[in-house]
């Protein structure tokens, strides 16, 4: 054998990232390796934080120091040896950018190809490619410029014009906003009396002082007495420099200021109180000039075969692919070929039901991951390591086979494919399996099995024992106590759907990806009184955030410490007065090394405990605050549940955390270190404490091991038996089999779906077998 052919393994020795315990494992190259284990066992720490992170760090080091200064700083993982690495391409579940201007077309570059096509073939001619872009505004100008000619400076008059495709009315957003003025101010009061009801515009605040002393209207008279010019200045005046309390500031009317400060952001990224104000004060409606297409009249007037670029972007991608294949123009043949291949990849990967004008922020985690896969399907690169994070998320059992084929195709091209996965259907196609465990958190972080699939079955590990687990149909189902009526639902691809969602039972809404499940529930059920939605949205929080702060658990604990010691509660917060003065409560000291990776060293004053030494002298139940935050949830539940440390408010939160299977998490563990499944269950624990009578869960099995699914089903039963209703949007057959009622949408995706194709019990669905879901569920339960 040639020496160059002997490097056929990726070797990891002594990995200690997060909860990994000196993990050593060897992975075969050019094979499909699946990593499994319970949520929190260390899969992502090994695959993403160790193998993929080191590969990307080493690639970044090949660039010049100047280029590295513009790239993210990546530290070396905590591992003794990594050998045999190849270039890693990570295809994760992170949601795509939620910017209001980002669509499927702009995020995948398909929109750029389409713009070039219309700039070459569209009639009448509208201009270059940017004339079809809704992110480019049309601007023009003229003036004198100074140029050097023959060694002398000469002034010349120049004019310029940039033709963009953005609709001038909505500026390329597709929607315009109307303001409810009663939500902006109370016209019976004056500005100095607190008339402005906008967040952060209090009388004592800076904005309140600017408006009260602007001089454009009287600050001490009720707004209802303002003249028309005065009210117009309050609402619409353009930016003007004024002097307030001797300081030069910029005054701007309420409407333009709100548009710049609030409406320029994506709604989901707003703080809760800002979002509530926006929902209350601002009504968004489709732009009347462009009908929501975001494009100018000029861009919409240029057509190819009677189709404008707005029409093309609104088409279902499977239909657009067929339309592109019908074009026969030798002058743009390479462009048509590249565009057709990319659109065919959408269809092949199961996303043919999307449209290019779909906002990218509305894609689910699974849809976003598959969208990122598209650019790699036709790649000519080989000997690359592709890293996938649960690629079957959001996929109906019918679609999982197609995803498996794509993973095998990437492997067969000579690539190494590493997949973190829980679904037995994907584990079954693995060439090599690495099982981590035996449990989660501090009880995990070890490789409990490494080998082929047959060996996993015989291994006796938690995964091996549950690999053949199949939930059975319930012998009896609950009787509904009423219904939520949905009438003529037409959100996205729904076709005037009428359906009654039963209450008091466990209802599962299912169907192939893109069939209309989320459109039906989020569009017609979420937002009603008493309905609590637990979705897959990411938890927003810094490395200072942890389960104790996120759930509100820390508040009663701080008060208990303060009461027991006769001091202020603020002392027991590492983000407030009790913080270690040396590290400001972070526990570590961060040193920025410019283009090199920053270094984090444990604070030598507090020894990583985050609190000032004087605070650690106060105890409650024999423990100081740092020792409490180091407790796992299960231990803390006992600690605060009885004896001298009994705190009922804290105990209730801890019970909910234990109920959702997070008993192994420590109270002070940073949220940034939690896995996707852990973050979703943390959100569920928070919502369990709310007073809603109906829970809507969006794919709660995301990130759950087969053993955890059993615990989830038991939790859902407890919620329903406690008098609440549970509606679950789900593809997992175990959840379907356990349901009291199933609502199946389809029969296909996109314009082939949007209809209710079955309503009834799981047993009736299995007996019927008229839908794809029925056929797969029947196969799953062995009927």
Automatic annotation (TrEMBL):
Transmembrane segments: none annotated. It is found in: Cytoplasm. Keywords: ATP-binding, Cytoplasm, DNA damage, DNA excision, DNA repair, DNA-binding, Excision nuclease, Nucleotide-binding, Repeat. InterPro entries: ABC_transporter-like_ATP-bd, P-loop_NTPase. PROSITE patterns: ABC_TRANSPORTER_2. PANTHER family: DRUG RESISTANCE ABC TRANSPORTER, UVRABC SYSTEM PROTEIN A. Belongs to the ABC transporter superfamily. UvrA family. This is UvrABC system protein A. The lineage of its organism: Bacteria, Bacillati, Actinomycetota, Actinomycetes, Pseudonocardiales.
């Amino acid at each position: 054998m040639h020496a160059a052919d002997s490097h056929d393994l990726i070797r990891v020795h002594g990995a200690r990232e997060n909860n990994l315990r000196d993990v050593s494992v060897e992975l075969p190259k050019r094979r499909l390796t699946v990593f499994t284990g319970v949520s929190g066992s260390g899969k992502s720490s090994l695959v993403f934080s160790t193998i993929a992170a080191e590969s990307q760090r080493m690639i970044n080091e090949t660039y010049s120091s100047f280029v590295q200064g513009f790239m993210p700083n990546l530290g070396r993982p905590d591992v003794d040896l990594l050998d045999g690495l190849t270039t890693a391409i990570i295809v994760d579940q992170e949601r795509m950018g939620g910017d209001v201007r980002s669509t499927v077309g702009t995020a995948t570059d398909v929109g750029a190809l389409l713009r070039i096509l219309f700039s070459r073939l569209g009639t009448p001619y509208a201009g270059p490619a940017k004339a079809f872009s809704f992110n480019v505004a049309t601007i023009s100008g003229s003036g004198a410029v100074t140029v050097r000619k023959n060694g002398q400076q000469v002034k010349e008059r120049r004019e310029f014009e940039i033709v963009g495709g953005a609709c001038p009315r909505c500026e390329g957003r597709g929607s315009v906003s109307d303001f409810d003025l009663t939500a902006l101010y109370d016209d019976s009061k004056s500005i100095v009396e607190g008339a402005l009801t906008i967040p952060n515009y209090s009388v004592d605040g800076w904005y309140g002082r600017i408006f009260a002393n602007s001089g454009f209207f009287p600050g001490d008279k009720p707004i209802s007495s303002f003249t028309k010019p005065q009210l117009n200045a309050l609402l619409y005046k353009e930016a003007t420099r004024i002097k307030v309390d001797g300081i030069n500031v910029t005054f701007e009317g309420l409407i333009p200021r709100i548009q710049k400060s609030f409406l320029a952001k994506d709604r989901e990224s707003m703080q809760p109180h800002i979002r509530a104000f926006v929902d209350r004060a601002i009504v968004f409606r489709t732009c009347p000039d462009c009908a929501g297409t975001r494009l100018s009249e000029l861009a919409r007037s240029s057509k190819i075969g009677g189709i404008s670029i707005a029409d093309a972007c609104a088409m279902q991608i499977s239909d657009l692919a067929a339309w592109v294949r019908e074009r026969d123009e030798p002058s743009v043949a390479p462009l048509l070929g590249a565009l057709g291949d990319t659109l065919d990849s959408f269809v092949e990967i199961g996303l043919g039901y999307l449209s290019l004008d779909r906002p990218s922020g509305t894609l689910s985690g699974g849809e976003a991951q598959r969208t990122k896969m598209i650019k790699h399907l036709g790649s000519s690169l080989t000997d690359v390591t592709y890293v996938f994070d649960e690629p079957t998320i959001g996929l109906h059992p019918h679609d999982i086979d197609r995803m498996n084929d794509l993973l095998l195709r990437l492997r067969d091209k000579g690539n190494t494919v590493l997949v973190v996965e829980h679904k037995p259907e994907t584990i079954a196609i693995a060439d090599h399996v690495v099982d981590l465990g035996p449990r989660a958190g501090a009880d995990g972080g070890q490789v409990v099995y490494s080998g082929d699939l047959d060996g996993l079955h015989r291994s006796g590990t938690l995964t091996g024992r549950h690999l053949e687990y199949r939930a059975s149909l319930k012998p009896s189902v609950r009787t509904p106590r009423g219904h939520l009526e949905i009438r003529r639902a037409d959100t996205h691809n729904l076709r005037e759907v009428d359906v009654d969602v039963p209450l008091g039972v466990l209802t599962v809404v299912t169907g192939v990806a893109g069939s209309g499940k989320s459109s039906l529930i989020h569009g017609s059920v979420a937002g009603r009184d008493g309905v609590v939605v637990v979705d897959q949205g990411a938890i927003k929080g810094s490395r200072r955030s942890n389960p104790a702060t996120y759930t509100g658990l820390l508040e009663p604990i701080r008060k208990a410490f303060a009461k027991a010691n006769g001091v202020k509660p603020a002392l027991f917060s590492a983000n407030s007065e009790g913080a270690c003065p040396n590290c400001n409560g972070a526990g570590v000291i961060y040193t920025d090394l410019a283009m090199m990776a920053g270094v984090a060293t444990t604070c030598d004053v507090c020894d990583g405990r985050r609190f000032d030494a004087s605070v650690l002298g106060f105890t409650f139940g024999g423990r100081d605050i740092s020792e409490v935050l180091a407790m796992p949830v299960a231990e803390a539940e006992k600690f605060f549940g009885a004896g001298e440390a009994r705190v009922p408010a804290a105990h209730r939160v801890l019970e909910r955390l234990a109920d959702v299977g997070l008993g192994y998490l420590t109270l002070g563990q940073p949220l940034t270190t939690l896995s996707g499944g852990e973050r979703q269950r943390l959100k569920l624990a928070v919502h369990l404490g709310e007073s809603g009578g109906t829970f809507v869960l969006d794919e709660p099995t995301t990130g759950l091991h087969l053993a955890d699914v059993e615990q989830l089903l038991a939790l859902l039963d407890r919620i329903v038996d406690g008098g609440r209703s549970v509606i679950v949007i789900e593809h997992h057959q175990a959840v379907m089999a356990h349901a009291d009622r199933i609502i199946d949408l389809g029969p296909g995706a996109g314009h082939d779906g949007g209809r209710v194709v079955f309503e009834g019990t799981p047993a009736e669905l299995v007996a019927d077998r008229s839908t794809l879901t029925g056929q797969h569920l029947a196969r799953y339960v062995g009927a």
